[in-house]
Specification:
With about 325 residues, the protein is α+β, with helices and mostly antiparallel strands. It is built from ten helices and 14 strands. The strands form four sheets. It has a five-stranded mixed beta barrel. It has a four-stranded mixed sheet with strand order 7-8-10-13. A hairpin with a 6-residue loop joins strand 1 (about 20-25) and strand 2. Helix 2 (about 95-110) runs parallel beside helix 7 and helix 4 runs parallel beside helix 7 (about 225-235). It is elongated and about 70 Å long. The protein starts with a helix and ends in a 21-residue tail after the last strand.
Length: about 325
């Protein structure tokens, strides 16, 4: 049973006591309980080895997250009640898609703990939570549609792990996927025209660098897949906790304070799948670098790919990145 399933199986406590929780102990992590509080919000309870560092740790309150050390709790589980001190992590949102997102992050970070976690480990866990969720108050760095396209390309690829390894750490980077000699840029269109905006650097890479352009159509659909669902699907295909943490961190940093609205919007998966094409950068119409004055920078323009013949992936010769497509 994963955290989402465990949380969904819990009933909300009928009590005005905010420190009363209905809970389930995780079979694989007996020091962790997934719980629900009297407001119906998901809670993570973590027991740890006590030491003097308790008194030096600060509690944290963010927009969506409340983290408290050494809190005396009343926990109801399997028709019995215990009183015990826990490290408590409360996710303050009733939005289902955001709750799934939070629980996915929690499940990943919990796996980094030992079977008897010390306060130092718990502190490190807190820092990771804070780092991810603090970005949710910042300005988005990319459109939700663009992020959905990148996640979809990984979701539809033969080797998502390989692509995730090369996914940009910072959303502002020139290429969405970068393996040094091989680069992939994802472009989406909601107008069903293959007219995309490029930077000069994307179509004029240094000598010896190969660039592929992934182009796909996107259309909002109530029966489609959301960013939250694509993230969950990718999470299930991954085993490396570092990569899973990278996935959630980049999504959080990219969406910023728009996450509440953006993470639940759905796009038609079949339209995206049937329209996905790959193009060699050499075949895309562009302004050659020699025609751009030395003191002119950040040149961007639209290019129409409609009449360009896409490359067939089985014929693509590539190494680390392209082999994963």
């Amino acid at each position: 049973m994963n955290l989402v399933e465990a949380y969904n199986s819990l009933d909300t406590p009928n009590s005005g006591n905010r420190n009363l929780f209905n809970a389930i102990t995780l079979a694989d992590f007996p020091f962790v309980k997934i719980a629900i509080n009297n407001e119906g919000l998901p809670v993570i309870l973590i027991s740890s080895v006590s030491n003097s560092s308790y008194i030096t740790q600060k509690n944290v309150r963010l927009k969506h997250l409340e983290l408290t050390h050494n809190l005396e709790c009343k926990v109801s589980e399997n028709d019995s009640v215990i009183f015990q001190s826990f490290t408590v992590i409360i996710f303050n949102s009733s939005q289902e898609s955001l709750q799934r997102y939070f629980l996915g992050i929690a499940e990943t970070l919990i796996k980094s703990l030992s079977q008897s976690p010390t306060q130092q480990e718990i502190l490190h866990l807190f820092k990771n939570f804070v780092e991810i969720f603090r970005t949710l108050t910042e300005i988005p760095t990319k459109t939700m549609q663009g992020l959905w396209g990148e996640l979809f390309v990984m979701y539809a690829s033969r080797e998502p792990v390989r692509l995730l390894n090369y996914w940009h750490t910072m959303p502002e980077e020139k290429f969405d996927f970068n393996a040094d000699n091989e680069k992939l840029e994802v472009k989406t269109s909601s107008t069903f025209e293959r007219i995309h905006t490029f930077s000069s650097e994307q179509l004029n890479p240094p000598l010896g660098k190969e660039v592929l352009i992934a182009s796909l159509f996107v259309k909002q659909s109530t029966n489609g897949q959301s960013i939250s669902q694509l993230v969950s699907s990718l999470h299930q295909k991954l085993e490396d906790t570092t990569l899973i943490e990278k996935l959630y961190s980049i999504v959080s940093r990219t969406l910023g304070n728009s996450i509440e609205q953006s993470i639940k919007i759905k796009f038609d998966i079949d339209i995206a799948k049937n329209s996905l094409r790959f193009y060699r950068y050499q075949d895309v119409h562009k302004i050659e670098k020699i025609y751009i004055p030395n003191k002119v920078s950040e040149v961007r323009y639209k290019s129409d790919l409609t009449d360009i013949v896409p490359i067939e992936l089985p014929l693509l010769k590539g190494g680390g990145l392209f082999r994963g497509l």
